[in-house]
Amino acid sequence: MLIVVSPAKKLDFETPSPTSKFTQSNLLEHSQELINRCVQLTPADLSSLMGISDQLAGLNAARFGEWSLPFTTDNAKQAVLAFSGDVYTGLQAYDFDDKSFDFAQQHLRILSGLYGLLKPLDLVQAYRLEMGTKLDNDRGANLYQFWGDIITHNLNTALEEQGDDVLINLASNEYFKSVKKKSLKATIVTPAFKDWKNGQYKMISFYAKKARGLMANYIIENKISQLDDLKNFNSAGYEYSEDLSKGNDWVFTRKEMD
Q1: Is 252 in contact with 210 (CB distance < 8 Å)?
Q2: Is the pTM of this model over 0.70?
Q3: Helices in 97-183 by DSSP H: which ranges?
Q4: CA pair distance 258, 56, nearest whole angstrom
Q5: Interatomic CA distance for residues 139 and 148, integer angstroms
Q6: How many domains does the chain have?
Q7: Which domain covers residue 140, as residue numbers?
Q8: Which end of the chain is less packed: N or C, by CB atoms within 10 Å?
């Protein structure tokens, strides 16, 4: 079973890592190409391209300018610990023990606009470059064209290495669009999380993002390997809904928020 999640805009490079283990992304040569393109952009260019404030644009222009290889634990941090948004609040990677980090390293992947596909312990430097950014580059007009088949190929390799053909899609639509589903040698299961509000079940973004992290945590901490066992997921009060689920689109609901 392979899990994919999105990265986060919010970063944490201050909290000490609970593990000394780290790895290097095998796609850094591609990341370097994107950095070479991004450093050509002014803060005003970045503000317009990303729809962000002048202050954030200045910060990210500086980040692109400071990006440098090789990555070490002095100038970079493990990806699963560096990202700090709602998904990662649910994932709770700072509480992992060595066995959980090892399991996550094999079974979890993080999609990224700059890094393509990351293993949890791959080192990253601070950045902001969302997958949906329409950054023209030598390979096309946006990041989907830049990454092409590369992300899908690496997911297929990861699936082959673990001898499995099930992919749990816990990523956002923006990021999962970077995966070419027809070329992916896997059964894709996409969980959705809905909360009871105003007399019906609705997907509420904040809770859904955190629930994606909770499900990834559930798989990692319980070392889930059988797909049907995922239906037992019950973190934060969610339960599998047979009635609302269709095919490989699995719905988990809760009436009261924990």
Answers
A1: no
A2: yes
A3: 98-107, 143-147, 150-161, 173-176
A4: 34
A5: 9
A6: 1
A7: 2-254
A8: C
